[in-house]
Amino acid sequence: MRRWMILPMIIIVVLLGSGGAQASRKTVNTQLAQELVDHQAYADNDPANYGYAKYIRRISDKGNGRITVQVTRNFCRLSSNDKTNVMNQVQVLARMVLIENHRISKRQAARGLDATIRYQKQVVGQSRPDDHYHYRW
Questions:
Q1: Contact indicator for 20, 102 with CB cutoff of 8 Å
Q2: Which residues of 51-76 are buried (b: 16+ CB within 10 A; e: fewer)?
Q3: Beta carbons of 83 and 126 less than 8 angstroms apart
Q4: Is 25 left (phi over 0), alpha (psi -120 to 50) or beta?
């Protein structure tokens, strides 16, 4: 191969990357917002799988496996069990996006995400430090 052909090939590889690069937090938050909008649109036709999305206003990646979830007033009126079910579905969505964008590993995802749940500016729930699938309400 000629020397003058090698440099353009290296530049192409560097620009395209290996596909394993971590996405920016802004990119991930944009994707989380879009996925949530999609799930909210599906909620009327498939409430068993997507009904949870109607209780969520926003999901934000805070880095290091931490998320903040903004909820609706109706979420605050749910029973503790229903709140937990909604949050576990939020975790599924957030883990999918974070893994896909290399923000967390599959091993980290298995442990769950450290979630802070807010209604407006007030913290209304938090995942437990020892078990991110259980919450303090």
A1: yes
A2: bbbebbeebbbeeebebebbbeeebb
A3: no
A4: alpha
pLDDT per residue of the chain (137 residues) written in tens, 0 to 9:
444 444 444 444 333 344 567 789 999 999 999 999 999 999 999 999 999 999 999 999 999 999 999 999 999 999 999 999 999 999 999 999 999 999 999 999 999 999 999 999 999 999 999 899 999 99
Question: How many Å separate Cα 54 from the centre of its chain?
Answer: 16
Angle at which helix 25-42 crosses helix 80-100, to 10 degrees, equals 130
What strands, in cross-sheet order, belong to the sheet with 131-136? Answer: 56-63, 66-71, 114-119, 122-128, 131-136
